[in-house]
Amino acid sequence: MAVGQQTGTYVASSSTAATVSEPASAGVAAARGANAVSVSPTPVAVSGKILWLVVLAAVLIVVVLGSLAVGARNIPLSTVLDAVFHPDQANGDHAVVASRLVRTVAGLVVGASLGLAGTSMQGVARNPLADPGILGINAGASLAVVAGIFFLGVTTVSSYLWFAFAGSAVAAVVVYSVASLGRSGATPVKLALAGAAIAAGMGSLMSAMLVSSADSLELFRIWQVGALAGKSWESIVAVLPFVAVGAGILLCTGRLLNTLALGDDTARSLGQRPGTGRIVSAAGIVLLCGSATALAGPIGFIGLIVPHLLRALVGPDYRWLLPLSMLVAPAVLIAADIVGRVVLLPSEVPAGILAAMIGAPVFIAVVRRGRRAEL
User: Fold this and answer.
1) What is the model's pTM?
2) N or C: which end of the chain has fewer CB within 10 A?
3) How far apart are CA 115 and CA 60, in angstroms?
4) What percent of the chain is modeled with pLDDT above 70?
5) Which of the listed ranges 11-25, 61-75, 181-195 does the model predict with the highest average pLDDT?
6) CB–CB of 330/107 below 8 Å?
7) What is the dihedral of CA 343, 344, 349, 355, to 10 degrees?
8) Selection from 317, 323, 353, 312 nearest residue 336 by Cα
């Protein structure tokens, strides 16, 4: 779908379009050409989105139950439910379910954070290639965490958090600044190239620190591949407040992202402040990316593939995309974790590796579709 078609689809489906004055509406309509139909969402469109909401929530529930039941030792569903609601510490099956419950909740938190951050990043940058991993945000958080391990000997998630926040913020500023150089500004391809280059440079710095310290390498070895196994309730509780704040910020930006899709000038005519909105959104993105990276390590591509999947299901309205991403992204990440448990028994493949295997082909497909270079 071309850029003009996407813009037309949004205006025809968003209630914001009804608030545009006649002159502004005429200008946007002229830009849209044949797609210039300014109407509110129809009951059918809304009911279809509600249906998808119910279906995706059901899928997430099924995936969560599968995460508790499937592994090197399969547990019957009845036993899983009994272990959740009536736990018995002396029961071996209940103990297995309890250990899987921690990694499943970690998957919910990390997946929701990455999905919401990736969806918001694509809207803020109007860039379908935007993703915390591709644009170097996760690499910045990782480098900062490694620096904390190497120089200060930090070992807990609560300590990782502050380094991850700082690294995410610095990486975001550097990548956008580098991509903005030149006449065309921060185009989608330049952002992706700048993100890849910055991530490679940060990876080299990480390697330099790790090879010179065996202790740092051991602490970082498992965390760097992006895994849900081995988490604790204390680690999850440590990141929850930051995830809640970041999610609250981004869930309130749906109307802003919708108007940004029409261009900054149109957004200003609708009473929005694009610059301020982007700064606020960036704060929420940093909180979510930093929290997810501190908890589970750098997991890429989840924030890339989920928004594209959702646009195919419910359209480009960010008021729906943002909350639905918090259902689909955890389902994708937890499903990858389930596959990783059973694909190479008795060993496990970390969820971050499988997420990259799924997301890399999607990234290549999006890059090759040049007509969708901007949202």
Assistant:
1) 0.80
2) N
3) 14
4) 83
5) 61-75
6) yes
7) -30
8) 353
